[in-house]
TrEMBL record, chains A, B:
Pathway where it operates: Cofactor biosynthesis; (R)-pantothenate biosynthesis; (R)-pantothenate from (R)-pantoate and beta-alanine: step 1/1
The species this protein was found in: Candidatus Macondimonas diazotrophica
Name used for this protein in its record: Pantothenate synthetase
Location in or out of the cell: Cytoplasm
Gene that encodes the chain: panC
Gene3D superfamilies: HUPs (3.40.50.620), Pantoate-beta-alanine ligase, C-terminal domain (3.30.1300.10)
């Protein structure tokens, strides 16, 4: 596995692969890789001859007071895991490669509208614009045929699909199911911020999401009541709930009736650690 | 010369050329082609094996009260001229191809900072964001190695160079010198809005720009005085002056002394027709 840090070194490898007619898959990450990321790499290997993984903790997607400075950085362990998993190249750009005019720079990819206004967009202004911008740069640097993202960041995935469609990027976006601990907790680099009692509490999110999903499948349709009930149960359990929302899977808008695919999404804090999770619900009635 | 309107038809041709190892040049236009555009096509032919010209009157770069509705559209004459000039493909997308979610859509490429704040940016809010967005889409659709733009739109060219650099687009941007009528008037589709007396007056812009350039070359450095004098002469001649500015060629900021490359840029109305022009000044002292 090669390890490159500059745009020039990256382009050189990419060009060689392209000229050989090989398909390229990109897995963009912020590093500190866990089994969730490695599942993305596995999927990537099934979709292309070459797998590029980027590791970049993107400053422009963190807000003031968020955890940019302390976000866990473990490049050596990450590269070891990626080599073992069969990635072909890991791209670890310094900030100056991703933001040649300094971060945030003068050019931004801005996504607006209902997709970005609700859920995490409401409490993290600028977050998705930061994500869209850095992903655009990674796409332009790597020129992948396909890019793989986790469904845990459901809103991010929907926004990136929209970005690719509206900007006519020649790239296929693939979402991969959330990987979980045995007790249901969604894998996340931020889980390591949790102390043992918080860690013991955290799987409650998934439990309540699953319960809400079951109620939807059983035919309950009073979405505000379901959201309120789930929110109250999380609050009672000790979470500071940011949102519990039931939205349409395709555009993240409030359901109007008759939808076949819904998503229940949660953001809640345990202590000072913000966790998100979601569950897709397919309704056949 | 082929004529295509859909992204699919375009991609098919592009893929074929790419697979044959041919370099592709793109000349983005709004149609109503004149000798200025054809000079871009000539330059494109010298830079790549395949020349794609796009014709798209982009709604998102026109402001309220601007001339989007009446902007001259002459696709048949344009295609004839392009075929004669040796273009390989002309791409004439309908609005729904460029804006699949409707214009302006939810995704925008936003350029901010000093490059966009002055000159035309001051009076045309959203214009350069509209340009950057549509050019990004065209780049993603055509995937050119090189793209050619006229220097008459000097600020646009500087902004697109910045966009390509900051977003790491794998595309070279080439600027081509402004083409002029024998009397000095810069070629522009908007010149046809001029009635005969206005047309007779219009070359005064270039005359005053040239005069200002000569004064700079002769050593005058009181930029505000030079700007004011040129502005007054234009006003006296019958123009409604929007700006006359002397700026640095590289970043369009006010000169601070010692600059080697300056640009004198003008926007002024003759009747209701807004004309722009500029002149580069290389100072060797």
């Amino acid at each position: 596995m090669e390890r490159v840090e500059t745009a020039e070194a990256l382009r050189q490898r990419i060009t060689r692969w392209r000229q050989a007619g090989q398909r390229i898959a990109l897995v963009p990450t912020m590093g500190n890789l866990h089994a969730g990321h490695l599942a993305l790499v596995d999927r990537a290997r099934g979709l292309a001859q070459r797998v590029v993984v980027s590791i970049f903790v993107n400053p422009t997607q963190f807000g003031p007071g968020e955890d940019f400075e302390v976000y866990p950085r473990t490049p050596e362990a990450d590269c070891a895991a990626l080599a073992e998993r069969g990635a072909d190249l890991v791209f670890l750009p310094p900030v100056a490669v991703m933001y040649p005019a300094g971060a945030p720079g003068a050019v931004r990819v801005e996504v607006s509208g209902p997709l970005t206004e609700g859920l995490c967009g409401a409490s993290r202004p600028g977050h998705f614009s930061g994500v869209a911008t850095v992903v655009t740069k990674l796409f332009n640097l790597v020129q992948p045929d396909v890019a793989i993202f986790g469904q845990k960041d459901y809103q991010q995935l929907a926004i990136l699909r929209t970005m690719v469609r509206e900007l006519a990027m020649p790239i296929r976006i693939v979402g991969v199911e959330t990987q979980r601990e045995a007790d249901g907790l969604a894998l996340s680099s931020r889980n390591q911020y949790l102390d043992p009692p918080q860690r013991a509490l955290a799987p409650t999110i998934h439990a309540i999401l699953s319960d809400t999903a079951e109620k939807l499948i059983a035919g309950e349709r009073d979405y505000p009541a379901l959201e309120a009930r789930a929110g109250m149960r999380l609050t009672d359990a000790g979470f500071a709930v940011e949102y519990v929302r039931i939205v349409r899977a395709d555009d993240l808008k409030a359901p109007e009736g008759g939808e076949k695919r819904l998503v229940v999404a949660v953001a809640a804090k345990v202590g000072s650690t913000r966790l998100i999770d979601n569950i897709e619900v397919n309704i056949s009635e």
